[in-house]
């Protein structure tokens, strides 16, 4: 694909676009309702985990900025099994994310056009995302930048409105204030079970840093821009998420937060702005489309890398005139085709189970990334005397500690019935990918591809 096209600003916006999706606007309500005000601590832990994984990724990217990013690093550090699992696990998670986001986008659009069948919107958005990715990296970065600017600005405005609401600008002073943090059952009304039960839903909004990793090799100066982008993305999203959730908890008592819709809609209702529901719906739709667009880019790049690395048929590494891995894009689009069908027949509960399974697979890949970093870093430092160290202190304790935290997040899903089903669904998918690896190796497919 095109080399050296993206600026550091576009890399930051692509990163934010790939991370800030519908998951934050929707999953935040579930997390708050599950844990209560202590959900703020869940988000702090999630921000730390994201920062550590991103830090590990940025070290490896700066030392070796290649197409395929973490999949290539896993192969070099862990061997064939590392490269295979990292690539296919990420691709599977990305396809599920894409499918869920396109379905969510269609649902949001039906708010304005309730009589139009859901599958029509899913099909329209699928075609749109495929076309954007077929245009190449530069156009992808431009589209992501515009989408990211819209939703980040919107979340900032929502937070400011919430602050005004906290100080009684919109009335109802008796029901609003920081007292909402402790008067409705205390800071942790549902105890340790509620705190643990909200961990996955608080981490999901931080997922998507892999898109930045995949895009990093397309920047003008990876060694200079990647560390800068990482700092801005981590700081920006951590402050934005925590401040908006903190304000939300002060304006709306935690037990009144709905799990059926975004809690930010209720927050904005204090303003009495005409058509506020439509405005918020548009913001969430934008968030979903951007995340879907970023996921498509990520899965296409990793499929392309798998084709180059012997772990998928070599025709998947063929590039178009715009340097786009067109066959990898088309194969990855299969997930969107499935979403169009499922948007018509899939019951809501099953949709939620798939989303939970997606989270399980996605964060299992973070564990692979961290373990790769532990094994890969000593190799990189020997090869590169000017090695950039993001983690100057605490190695390898910091990545090992983060792996323990991620394992705790995955296991915490077992105490929430719907998330537990997602846990076992994700586990089955991981076993299937591993079984596929064993079969492919036994049949010598890696040498034939």
TrEMBL record:
<feature type="transmembrane region" description="Helical">
    <location>
        <begin position="421"/>
        <end position="440"/>
    </location>
</feature>
<dbReference type="Pfam" id="PF00324">
    <property type="entry name" value="AA_permease"/>
</dbReference>
<feature type="transmembrane region" description="Helical">
    <location>
        <begin position="191"/>
        <end position="211"/>
    </location>
</feature>
<feature type="transmembrane region" description="Helical">
    <location>
        <begin position="395"/>
        <end position="415"/>
    </location>
</feature>
<dbReference type="GO" id="GO:0016020">
    <property type="term" value="C:membrane"/>
</dbReference>
<feature type="transmembrane region" description="Helical">
    <location>
        <begin position="118"/>
        <end position="136"/>
    </location>
</feature>
<keyword id="KW-1133">Transmembrane helix</keyword>
<feature type="transmembrane region" description="Helical">
    <location>
        <begin position="324"/>
        <end position="347"/>
    </location>
</feature>
<keyword id="KW-0472">Membrane</keyword>
<dbReference type="GO" id="GO:0055085">
    <property type="term" value="P:transmembrane transport"/>
</dbReference>
<feature type="domain" description="Amino acid permease/ SLC12A">
    <location>
        <begin position="11"/>
        <end position="439"/>
    </location>
</feature>
<feature type="transmembrane region" description="Helical">
    <location>
        <begin position="38"/>
        <end position="57"/>
    </location>
</feature>
<protein>
    <submittedName>
        <fullName>Amino acid permease-associated region</fullName>
    </submittedName>
</protein>
<feature type="transmembrane region" description="Helical">
    <location>
        <begin position="77"/>
        <end position="98"/>
    </location>
</feature>
<keyword id="KW-0813">Transport</keyword>
<keyword id="KW-0029">Amino-acid transport</keyword>
<feature type="transmembrane region" description="Helical">
    <location>
        <begin position="232"/>
        <end position="255"/>
    </location>
</feature>
<dbReference type="InterPro" id="IPR004841">
    <property type="entry name" value="AA-permease/SLC12A_dom"/>
</dbReference>
<feature type="transmembrane region" description="Helical">
    <location>
        <begin position="12"/>
        <end position="32"/>
    </location>
</feature>
<keyword id="KW-0812">Transmembrane</keyword>
<feature type="transmembrane region" description="Helical">
    <location>
        <begin position="148"/>
        <end position="171"/>
    </location>
</feature>
<feature type="transmembrane region" description="Helical">
    <location>
        <begin position="275"/>
        <end position="304"/>
    </location>
</feature>
<feature type="transmembrane region" description="Helical">
    <location>
        <begin position="353"/>
        <end position="374"/>
    </location>
</feature>
<dbReference type="GO" id="GO:0006865">
    <property type="term" value="P:amino acid transport"/>
</dbReference>
